[in-house]
């Protein structure tokens, strides 16, 4: 009611951010909440145009997809003014892999110069932040030539960030880049030497997109995700990258997409096979329902109503993988010192209860299958 009252006096509501696409599936909420404009994409330049339109009393567009000249260059992106959430430091924007399910690949690649990154690190340190996240949709792409990582820019980047932060994490990295960097240059090992050498941390967290274990789907929806390796060897690339991370105390959260538009039951079983092959490597696997983004933004959502037996088997495999490695991570890496003993005990109790409940669920499913 307050919003509607303010809108009668001329207030305008503009909505943006990474999840703007979700509003397109709830047009009723756009009207109900009085949203004037949805901005889908990077807003540094387009927001200035919209503000001028408001001041001039012009009618606002309902939806803007940021592209072409409206995409900000490095010079258009201002430095942060205060401490960022989780000490996050953006190092680049865009991705060259062109996966069809991802919106980031629709944006051009731009690398932040080290002096800009250092200014933002200084802002965070001044705000009392001592720990942070290097953010990119693929950290190992920083300073790359196309999709091929280069050692020098990445080494300089990590030396700079560790100059200011006690501990760091990567927001995202691609599995092909991890494999290539280590096989070609021993680069992952070199970067972890920089990260661990001051003794303030003994592991690094990162999110990696596995997406699928199916070669057919990999070739269909993300042919460049395995580059410079062939899409036919994508499962092998995933395994090799997980092995490299395990050896370097990098703990990945590996996301998988369940219910891709072209997915078949055989594709799901290929993903199950990959999960089995990843069991020796410390990691947390995260299967997620497909959501319509990127080139797939006009496709329908995947919901639990569409789950089949293969999907259920996948979730079971992932559960036992995760609890196995969660216990290892808690014991060896997570929350060191007596101060955290109560929290660690609580987490271990939770895992114990979860395992017991899962066995009950599996028994129930088995009994239903026999009927």
Please give the structural blueprint:
Elements: H1 2-8, E1 14-15, H2 27-32, E2 37-40, H3 46-55, E3 63-65, E4 88-90, E5 92-93, E6 110-111, H4 114-126, E7 131-135, H5 151-164, E8 167-170, E9 172-173, H6 175-185, H7 187-196, E10 204-211, H8 215-221, H9 234-247, E11 250-258, H10 265-277, E12 284-289, H11 309-332, H12 341-370
Parallel strand pairs: 1-2, 2-3, 4-7, 7-8, 9-10, 10-11, 11-12
Antiparallel strand pairs: 5-6
Helix pairs in contact: 4-5, 5-7, 6-9, 10-11, 11-12
Summarize the structure.
With 371 residues, this protein is an alpha/beta fold. 43% of the residues lie in helices and 13% in strands. Helix 4 (114-126) packs parallel to helix 5 (151-164).
Largest sheet: spatial strand order:
9-10-11-12
Mean pLDDT: 88
* Measured distance between first and last alpha carbons: 55 Å
Residue fraction in strands: 5-15%
* Major sheet attributes: 4 strands, parallel
Give the beta-strand count.
12
Question: Which fold name fills CATH's third level, the topology of the largest domain?
Answer: pyruvate-formate lyase- activating enzyme
- Indicate the radius of gyration in whole angstroms: 23 Å
> What's the order of the H and E elements?
HEHEHEEEEHEHEEHHEHHEHEHH
Cα shape? globular
How many distinct folded domains? 2
CATH C-level of the largest domain: Alpha Beta
Provide the CATH architecture of the largest domain.
Alpha-Beta Horseshoe
Question: Segments where pLDDT lies below 50 for 5+ residues?
Answer: 300-305
Structural class: alpha/beta
Helix percent reads: 40-55%
CATH superfamily of the largest domain: tm_1862 like domain
How many DSSP helices? Answer: 12
């Amino acid at each position: 009611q307050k919003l509607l009252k303010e809108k009668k006096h001329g207030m305008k509501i503009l909505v943006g951010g990474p999840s703007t696409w979700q509003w397109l599936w709830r047009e009723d909420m756009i009207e109900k909440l009085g949203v004037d404009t949805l901005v889908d994409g990077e807003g540094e330049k387009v927001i200035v145009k919209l503000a001028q339109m408001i001041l001039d009393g012009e009618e606002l567009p309902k939806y803007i997809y940021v592209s072409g000249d409206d995409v900000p260059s490095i010079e258009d992106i201002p430095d942060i003014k205060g401490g960022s959430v989780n000490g996050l430091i953006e190092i680049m924007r865009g991705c060259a892999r062109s996966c069809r399910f991802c919106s980031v690949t629709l944006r051009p690649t731009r690398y932040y110069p080290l002096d800009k990154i250092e200014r933002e690190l200084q802002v965070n340190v001044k705000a009392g932040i001592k720990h942070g996240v290097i953010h990119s949709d693929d950290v190992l792409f920083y300073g790359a030539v196309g999709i091929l990582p280069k050692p020098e820019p990445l080494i300089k980047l990590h030396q700079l960030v560790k100059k200011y932060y006690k501990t760091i994490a990567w927001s995202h990295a691609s599995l092909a880049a991890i494999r290539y960097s280590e096989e070609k240059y021993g680069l992952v090992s070199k970067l972890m030497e920089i990260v661990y050498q001051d003794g303030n941390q003994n592991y690094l967290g990162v999110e990696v997109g596995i997406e699928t274990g199916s070669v057919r789907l990999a070739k269909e929806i993300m042919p460049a995700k395995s580059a410079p390796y062939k899409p036919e060897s994508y499962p092998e690339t995933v395994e090799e990258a997980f092995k490299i991370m395990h050896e370097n105390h990098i703990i990945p959260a590996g996301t998988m997409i369940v219910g891709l538009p072209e997915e078949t039951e055989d594709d799901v079983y290929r993903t199950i096979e990959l999960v089995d092959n990843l069991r020796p490597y410390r990691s947390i696997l995260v299967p997620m329902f497909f959501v319509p983004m990127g080139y797939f933004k006009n496709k329908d959502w995947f919901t639990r109503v569409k789950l089949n037996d293969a999907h259920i088997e996948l979730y079971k495999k992932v559960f036992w993988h995760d609890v196995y490695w969660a216990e290892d991570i808690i014991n060896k890496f997570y929350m060191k010192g007596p101060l955290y003993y109560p929290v660690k005990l609580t987490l271990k109790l939770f895992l114990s209860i979860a395992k017991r409940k899962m066995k009950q669920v599996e028994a129930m499913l088995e009994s239903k299958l026999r009927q």
